């Protein structure tokens, strides 16, 4: 939290405390003003509500609070009623049993700036526009047949990555895996989404990383709208700047793509196309890279897992060729490693915030219309009641002999969400994540740089819409395949 923001909170907090003490004798914390019973939760201060309790890592702080108040917890963030869901049973109620009621998204400043007035998919409220755009993207980009069609693009780009890491290995250099994996996903996705290579003139990836960070921030302007003109955290200004930069890049790409067509024909659809393209690249660039880099960090911290994975790859693929997409279905240990990575390091710790479209009573608790719903899957991934005493440990074998999958049917593990708003890119994402991890582990042995021990690896997170590592992941490769691999 910046010093300015801390000061603002301190001042607001003092003011609120006075009002609160003055009024507290009359208030009943878990009932609204109509006497309806809200889910339990900590008392809220006037004006800021519980915003001051979120801290730098809200998913962790809300995880601790839920231990006290339960899996359906009520907060007030500024003036927005907020429900934090922290158990599989509760998640099923919100995302399956009452999916339709919670299928909308809140209108937030990030959506306004970055989704061109929420005309993309991810920040767009539930309704026919969202349904049409989502269907269109699924059909033209994300369906199983489209994903398969782009297999050769993945193969070429991944082959180049292996060659470049091989050169680093020969030169005994340390590789910045965060950078390498980020670049690879960017190259693959640009070819799939724009039909062309990424453009070295723009640093699109760094722009997207910024937008993911800004979009996930708890922006006071969204929660206390009358403070919005003050832009206390400076987020409004940064969002505007990021949106202008992204706009410039996308405009250039679209212009080049449409050269030769009638200029007048293009205008009406411009913002709509920008919004969808931006959603697609934002949803795909960082997410897959974050999942790969966290899982690889855990593999490096657990050499036993690296050895077991290499053993499986040698048995199924051998050491004379690269892993192919068609091998993936036979790599059962890899599948467990991917699940375990996403369990401990979900890319979107609160999914993308949902919003209720009408009043509803769930488990005897009143949830008002326009409540914001945060499903804390980070908390669910570390719950000892679900994952036993070793819940905090990276232990892929926990998935042996159980049928937990990632498709949103089993609410113990929902890194892609579930229901109407579940991730439409899951199939593509799982191929990218599994294939890249498999290739890195199959082609190379890895060690941490400068004699670092596995348990010395920094595992600090940065909170945003996604949850990347705070520091880049560095490691030293040694090539391990037999001659003719590439
Ligand atoms: C490992 C990679 C990925 C993870 C973990 C992931 C996870 C998620 C999650 C948790 C949501 C929100 C679900 C909810 O709110 O209930 C989501 C939404 C979305 N994802 Fe993904 N995603 C990944 C990759 C991708 C890819 C590759 C694409 C497409 C190219 C994509 C496209 C989308 C879109 C468009 C939405 C918004 C859906 C809507 O609001 O209707 N995602 N994703």
Automatic annotation (TrEMBL):
Keywords: Heme, Iron, Membrane, Metal-binding, Monooxygenase, Oxidoreductase, Transmembrane, Transmembrane helix. GO terms for cellular component: membrane. Pfam families: p450. Signal peptide: none annotated. Belongs to the cytochrome P450 family. One of its GO terms (molecular function) is monooxygenase activity. Pathway: Alkaloid biosynthesis. Its cofactor is heme. It is found in: Membrane. Heme binds at residue 423. Transmembrane segments: none annotated. Its main location: membrane. This is Cytochrome P450. It is a single-pass membrane protein. It comes from the Eukaryota.
């Amino acid at each position: 939290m910046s010093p300015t923001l801390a000061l603002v909170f301190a001042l607001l907090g003092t003011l609120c405390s006075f009002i609160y003490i003055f009024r507290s004798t009359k208030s009943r914390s878990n009932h609204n003003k109509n006497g309806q019973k809200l889910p339990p939760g900590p008392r809220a201060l006037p004006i800021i509500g519980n915003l001051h309790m979120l801290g730098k890592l809200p998913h962790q702080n809300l995880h601790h609070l839920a231990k006290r108040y339960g899996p359906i917890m009520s907060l007030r963030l500024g003036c927005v009623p907020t429900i934090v869901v922290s158990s599989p049973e509760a998640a099923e109620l919100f995302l399956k049993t009452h999916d339709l009621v919670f299928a909308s998204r809140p209108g937030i400043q990030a959506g306004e700036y970055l989704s061109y007035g929420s005309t993309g998919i991810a920040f767009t409220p539930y309704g026919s526009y969202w349904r049409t755009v989502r269907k269109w993207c699924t059909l033209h980009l994300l369906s199983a047949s489209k994903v398969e069609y782009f297999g050769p693009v993945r193969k070429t780009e991944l082959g180049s990555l292996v060659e470049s890491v091989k050169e680093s290995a020969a030169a005994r250099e340390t590789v910045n895996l965060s950078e390498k994996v980020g670049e690879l996903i960017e190259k693959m996705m640009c070819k799939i989404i724009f039909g062309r290579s990424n453009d070295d003139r723009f640093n699109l990836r760094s722009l997207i990383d910024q937008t993911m960070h800004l979009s996930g921030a708890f922006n006071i302007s969204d929660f206390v709208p009358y403070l919005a003109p003050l832009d206390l955290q400076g987020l409004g200004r940064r969002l505007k700047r990021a949106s202008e930069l992204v706009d410039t890049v996308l405009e250039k790409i679209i212009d080049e793509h449409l050269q030769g067509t009638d200029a007048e024909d293009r205008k009406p659809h411009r913002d709509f196309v920008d919004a969808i393209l931006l959603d697609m690249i934002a949803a795909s660039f960082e997410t897959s890279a974050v999942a790969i880099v966290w899982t690889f960090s855990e593999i490096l911290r657990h050499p036993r897992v690296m050895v077991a994975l290499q053993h499986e790859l040698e048995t199924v693929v051998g050491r004379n060729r690269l892993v192919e997409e068609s091998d993936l279905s036979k790599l059962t240990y890899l599948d467990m490693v991917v699940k375990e990575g996403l369990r401990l390091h979900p890319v979107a710790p609160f999914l993308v915030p949902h919003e209720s479209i009408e009043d509803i009573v769930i488990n005897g608790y009143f949830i008002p219309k326009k409540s914001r719903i945060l499903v804390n899957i980070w908390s669910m991934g570390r719950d000892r009641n679900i994952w036993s005493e070793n819940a905090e440990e990276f232990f892929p074998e926990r998935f042996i002999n159980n049928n937990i999958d990632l498709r949103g049917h089993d609410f113990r593990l929902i890194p892609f969400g579930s229901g109407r708003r579940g991730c439409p890119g899951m199939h593509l994402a799982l191929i990218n994540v599994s294939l890249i991890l498999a290739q890195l582990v199959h082609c190379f042995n890895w060690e941490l740089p400068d004699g670092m021990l596995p348990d010395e690896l920094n595992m600090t997170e940065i909170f945003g819409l996604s949850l990347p590592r705070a520091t880049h992941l560095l490691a030293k490769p040694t090539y391990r395949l037999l001659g003719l691999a590439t």
